[in-house]
Amino acid sequence: KLPPDLQSEGEALLGAESASPQVYRPFIEKAEAGVQKKEIEAILQEVRKGVIERLTAKLQERGYRFLLEGGTPEEVLERGQPVKVQVLPEEDYLVLLKVDQNGAVITRFVREIENTEEVDLEQDKAVARSWCTVYKEIVAEVSQKIPLRIEHLVEPDEVDQIDYLQVTRGPKRWRAKNRLKGKTGRAQEREHP
Questions:
Q1: pLDDT score, position 140
Q2: What is the pLDDT of residue 191?
Q3: Which of 42, 65, 122, 149 has its CA at 20 to 30 Å from residue 32's CA atom?
């Protein structure tokens, strides 16, 4: 089915008393491009859905836990929202995971801390290195079945920083105060459920 604007243009051409091929050709090209675009979008959505399903399944198979509110990991990712993956066994380490509209996987490794005394850059980088190794294995496994595009994987040793999210633990939930800045992290205020 054609989009409404092309449909009305096609009906107008069909209703015309006479028309040359030069008049029909641009319409046909636009119609073919519109149909191809819809087919490409449908294929991209199927690939994106497959990436989400396989990636979440592989993470769960390896024992990773999703910290969620409002649905399954697949539902949250389908809505274009990030999910938090708890890096095992350390509770304070998270990976924020998102799959964009084109199926590209975006991750950010963070550590939640209450105060700056908890910062241990070397230990944090070791945990981040461990996560990167596992993540590359998961990507390789998922890529065997479906095309998977990773948005710029930064190794912990490539940059001398880890993102720290300063939180206060409340009775119902944790709240982020801010991200700490310095050679150990990037500053950015953020709400944290």
A1: 86
A2: 38
A3: 149
